[in-house]
Amino acid sequence: MDLLVGEVMRAAVFRGGRNIRVENVPVPRPGTGDVLVKVAYAGICGSDLLSYRGLGPWQHSAERPDRDGHELSGWVAAAGPEVDDIAVGDRVAVEPVHLVSCGGCTFCASGRTYLCAERGLQGGVHQHSRGFAEYDLVPRDHAYPLPDQVSLEDASILDCYACGVHALHVSDLPAKSPVLILGAGAIGLTLGQVARAAGHRVTVFGRSNASLHRALRAGAADTVYDTADPVEWQRALAEHAGGFGVVFDAAGNADGSLRDAMAFAAPGGRVVVVGVYAQAPAFDPHVAYQRELTVQWSNSYGSCVDGVPDYRRALDLLAAGLVRATELITHRLPLERIGDGFSIMLDRSVESIKVLVEPGDETA
């Protein structure tokens, strides 16, 4: 028995130029080692937003339409051959398919699967999750069964937490040392929760009072500064004149967030870039030179520590109640209104941290 109904499903198709259409497409069928997931929630990621705007490396067009959505959770609807350790109806979170790697190269052996040359390739074709739909097909080992205390809603943003787990690892941050995070969006605040769960004191810079207040309420920060306010900016400069040993750029603002991160890094310090820039970022190389700063990019996540996947570590944090996803979810919309979800994220007058799409909810 499975949860399938019919041969077609509703799915969001990206056709470039901010054109998204919800269309009927075939329901994929699981092959060997696959599971079909009935999607409960799919989060709109910053990289999805770049794709929607026609920026960055992930672009679609009328000639090359595609489907997106790599932050998702749901129920197992069907399993392919050689899958016998998961049952139809089980609740799962899905690690993105674009992170599937070869498993045999030097990078895979060291847990840096995100650097594998074969990452995301299946049969020579690049694959990625397509969670903005009623169903998505994933490899069994990318479907993580959920413990009872973790809701499907919270599990849908585990990808953000896994990015935070990995960023904290590559930062080489000394135990219990203070950190600065630039950016009060989903990546910045999930990283803040992960860092505080690890015992660090977290300062967050943001440009939205509402998001900064949410950071405090959600346990993502100890101290916040609204750096859109010139007075607050000067206060931050005065109160942190010595700088931070590690600064995370989770803003991804090509016009200045890397430059600002360097301005607040202590001599000999490290800047870890977690956000994705739409274009080459602006920064002052003389500041980096004079302070002998290290700039470290953090690329998604893998299993660098003791072979345990960062995604698993993120799920364990959520299950233990050490991070609080619910307080970061600001909007929930049915699939037919996915375009409104992107508009909400682009509207600076609206506080949006994480917008979820519910393919099974067609209410207005």
TrEMBL record:
Domain of life from the UniProt record: Bacteria
UniProt KW Acetylation keyword: no
Family annotation (Pfam families): ADH_N, ADH_zinc_N
Gene Ontology MF terms in the entry: oxidoreductase activity; zinc ion binding
Ranges where the Enoyl reductase (ER) domain occurs: 17-357
Cofactor list: Zn(2+)
Keywords: Metal-binding, Oxidoreductase, Zinc
Entry similarity comment: Belongs to the zinc-containing alcohol dehydrogenase family.
Protein name as it appears in the record: Enoyl reductase (ER) domain-containing protein
